Amino acid sequence: MKNKRKKRNRKSKNRKHYLSIGLILVTALVLGVAGLASWLPRKEEARAQEEQHETSSGSGLEEGQVTHNGQVYEYNKELKTLLFLGVDKRESELTEHLPGRGGQADCILVFIMDPSDQTIRTLQISRDTIVDIDVYDISGEKFTTEPGQITLQYAYGDGKQKSCWLMEQAVSKLLYGVEIDGYFAMNLEGFSVATDLVGGVTLTVPEDYTAIDPAFEQGATVEMDGDLARKYVQTRDITVLGSNDGRMERQAQYLEALAQKMTQGGGNVVFYTKMFNDLQDYIVTDMSADQLAEMSDYEFTGTVKAPGETRAGEEHDEYYVDEEALYELILELFYVPVQQ
């Protein structure tokens, strides 16, 4: 890979530690999973500069192409991407806050939709990933950039559209300029509501998680309502290094269980529209109920995590992506090899 990015400054000076919300997978799946065939308008402007770092006059590459280890790759323009954010915010609505107090995006997922075969792959990004955070003052003006956990970028918005936009920019930059087409943010209370609206989900507990709830014995098959599911995907021991990694694995498991549950619903338009309306107080999105209702036939084909490692920071866990491995994953997920 030519002209690699400079290594990110890995020193984190993060704030107050939360027992994070983790995944609000339920609603992303309910409202954004059954397929995204036509709702997201395809943005036509060029990909971000960083993604295009090898495309220049005289390079022999066309727009949207990059080269890695002698192989030319071209961005798959048919793909659509949805950023899902699970927001840790201890109130019933996503409302405005001062910059730095807008909540934290503790669950970060990128749904990658491929219309050619109607499949969805999910890319998980650790909330502890260290990136350059844009810091804003009380008037909403950007005044500096400093390294910090990516979850904190949400806080420097308004707790609504601006926070989601800031996260879009942070995620896109982390992913070498991959464009994000839409966003869906949901807070803690909405997660429980959504789970109950679909009638709960059933899954088998892979390890002993009785420290979270007595029902979570290894090998137990548990029918989870909203409150129980929230515990399963939210709770972690913040005193244990890398506890978020295990929680992300549980979140992925829950996503698969919910996907199976949702396929039983047959993509009923009335059901999806009603659910969207019932969750209006808990969500921020640039999607409409009609757009959500168009989702029907897509199938999940797996979840992958942005590669890297967790290290102990001065105050909190810090996750550092493996630059080379991440770039190769981006090529796998978003590009196709060009025949030479």
TrEMBL record:
Pfam families: LytR_cpsA_psr (PF03816). Gene3D superfamilies: LCP protein. Residues 105-263 form the Cell envelope-related transcriptional attenuator domain. The chain crosses the membrane at residues 21-40. The keyword Phosphoprotein does not apply. InterPro entries: LytR/CpsA/Psr_CW_biosynth, LytR_CpsA_psr. Keywords: Membrane, Transmembrane, Transmembrane helix. Belongs to the LytR/CpsA/Psr (LCP) family. This is LCP family protein. It comes from Candidatus Dorea gallistercoris. The lineage of its organism: Bacteria, Bacillati, Bacillota, Clostridia, Lachnospirales.
